[in-house]
Amino acid sequence: MRIVLEQQVSLASGKATFDRLRFACGGAVNASRIRLLDDASLAGCGLSRQKVRYVGQLARDVQARRFSVAGLARLSDDEARQQITSRLGLGDWTADIYLMMALGREDILPVGDLALVTGLEELDGVVYRQGKQTTANVTERAEIWRPYRSLGTKLIWANYLDRRRK
C-alpha cells in the first residue's frame, strides 16, 4: 500500500499519507482494515480519487485471495512483475520498487523512476530523457551494474537526495 501511495508524489508526501492511513487503520495497514474504511475516510487520509480506487481494489483482491503479497517472494522477477502489474493502478514502477525494496531483488532497474533518471543525468552530465528512447538510454547506461542494478539504483538515489540535502 505504501508504494501505491508513493506513486507520482514525493517520498515525504507518500509517507505522510501512509502515516494517516495507518492511524485510520488502527496502527496496522492490511486488507481487512482498509476494507473497513469507506471512500470518504480514505480520501480524508489524503488519497486521491484514483488512489482510493487502487487501494480499495488491492484490498479486495487480497481479501478474496486473487492476489497474495506473501506469495510474490516465491516467484521469479518476471512472474512477480506480471502478478503486480495485473492489478488495477499498479504498473512497472510499482513492481520495480516492490521487487527491489520489499523483496530485496538484486538486479532491478526502475527505468521509469524520475529520481533515477535525473540522478544519472546529473552524475554523467548527459541527457537520458529523450522521449521513447529514455528507457533504452537508461538501460544501456546501467548495463555495467548488472547483476546488481538495484544497488546501482540505490546509490544514484542516495546521491540525488544528498544533492538536495534530503
TrEMBL record:
SMART domains: ENDO3c (SM00478). It comes from the Bacteria. InterPro entries: Alkylbase_DNA_Glycosylase/TA, DNA_glycosylase, HhH-GPD_domain. Its EC number is 3.2.2.21. The keyword Iron does not apply. It catalyses: Hydrolysis of alkylated DNA, releasing 3-methyladenine, 3-methylguanine, 7-methylguanine and 7-methyladenine. Gene3D superfamilies: 1.10.1670.40, Hypothetical protein, domain 2. Keywords: DNA damage, DNA repair, Glycosidase, Hydrolase. One of its GO terms (cellular component) is protein-DNA complex. It is an enzyme of class 3 (hydrolase). GO terms for molecular function: alkylated DNA binding; DNA-3-methyladenine glycosylase activity; DNA-7-methylguanine glycosylase activity. PANTHER family: DNA-3-METHYLADENINE GLYCOSYLASE (PTHR43003:SF5). This is DNA-3-methyladenine glycosylase II. It comes from Neorhodopirellula pilleata. The lineage of its organism: Bacteria, Pseudomonadati, Planctomycetota, Planctomycetia, Pirellulales.
